[in-house]
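Protein modeling request. Please complete all fields; requests missing the sequence field cannot be processed.
Requester role: graduate student
Desired output: 3D structure, token encoding
Chains: 1
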Amino acid sequence: KTIENQSGLSVEDIGAEQAMNEFKSEYYQSTGAIEIPAYVVDDGEIKAVTEIAFSAFSECGFNSHASITSVIIPDTVTKIGVESFIACSDLESVRMSRGVVTIDSYAFAYCTKLNTIYLPNTISNIIAISFSSTKVVNYGGSEEEWNNIAFDGGVTNCFPSDVVVNYNYVG
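Delivered output (171 residues):
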């Protein structure tokens, strides 16, 4: 079962609260690049991080509690939740793994320095206003696969109207 804890990251079981709090503490002191952990250990049990939950890293840099410039999202994460990284003013780079299937509304909205993003071809749902500042999408699949993604309200409701999509991107 998936639960949320105070840091906004979800884990597959209740027992990983301490490990996630340690990650939260490290995040609030961090600047620059962060890598979301794929797994956390609690009482000797390994728990997978499966979701970046509502508002987990919102306004990083804006409220000056952390200034994140890049983030790596592991294969275990399948969903990036509502407003997960909204208004992260210094965020320039996001690397998503092939595990990500859904990007929820406003996930990366108002990240004014996030001009380019890589999206794997495993994405099947992108919800409204997810990428309000992104101008270039390097997509890991074909144009046909891109057209099969469920865009809430259409592509221009999720990205700026002048977004450029590079298909079959390997990077």
